[in-house]
Amino acid sequence: MIAAQFIGIPFQKPFLEAQLELANGSRKEYPSNGLNFGSAGSGVLRETNKDWGVTPIQDQLQQFQSLVDQNHINSTLVQQSLFFFESGSNDIFSYFYPFNTPTLNPVAYVQAMLTEVGHFVDRIYTLGARRISLFSLGPVGCVPARAVLPGAPTDRCFGKMNRMVKDYNKGLERLVMSIPIKYPGAVAVYGSVYNTVQLFRALPKRYGFLDVSSACCGYGTLNGEVQCGQQGYKLCPNPNRFLFWDYFHPSEHTYKLVSKALWGGRKSRIRPVNLRTLANMTLPHV
């Protein structure tokens, strides 16, 4: 639910099965089957969590461009790759930090985020990206970590936060629709993660969940007040029956269900086509 990912992988590899060997904080040799420039805690906006030492997505993109410029990545491989983008949860969650005083209202803040995403798409297209996947944010206002925010409800999701999420997601989908028009030869898809996760919350038993509110690992209200691994945390006996693993992140079971929906799902899950179709498309050379 809270993530900042910019990933490019060769389309021949199954979605999320490629070993993503290059990540900020764990740098290795350049792999043949995937590059992941995600930096935990980062967001769409450069200012998001900058005091935490995160790598902003703008710098993540510069890292990728450097590899392309230095011919460490073949240009043909870039054009054949799937590019996954999922970021923004940290930006919206941090908007509600008690020690932050936002300088923008929620509408302007979301628009600033979308502007940055537009710049991102511009740059990866220039670098050769042609198969672009923008994934919506999940219901960030439902994460257990909301328990640490003053005024946030714990008996239901945080409506103000989810409204910002939905506005951002709508903007992402509009951007996806514009990509084939603005960028010749490119194809883009929109992964509707928000609606998919909300379906899990509405029908938990159907999808194998016993708890869709609290974290499996943590402590305090919703197990969201103490981070998993920190002093005092507790661990549930059946992690895959929980929607949330810790105070921010989904469980492995949740990730598997979402991945399946994105790879081969219907248009209610990902549109205009799913990732399997996108991976097997023959695109024109432009």
Automatic annotation (TrEMBL):
Lineage top rank: taxon: Eukaryota
Keyword terms of this UniProt record: Hydrolase, Lipid degradation, Lipid metabolism
GO BP terms in the entry: lipid catabolic process
Lineage of origin: Eukaryota, Viridiplantae, Streptophyta, Embryophyta, Tracheophyta
UniProt organism field: Ilex paraguariensis
Any one GO MF annotation of this record: hydrolase activity
Pfam families per the UniProt record, alphabetical: Lipase_GDSL
Gene3D superfamilies: SGNH hydrolase
InterPro entries: GDSL, GDSL_Est/Lipase, SGNH_hydro_sf
Presence of the UniProt keyword Lipid metabolism in the record: yes
Family under the similarity heading: Belongs to the 'GDSL' lipolytic enzyme family.
The protein's name: GDSL esterase/lipase 6
Parts forming coiled coils: none
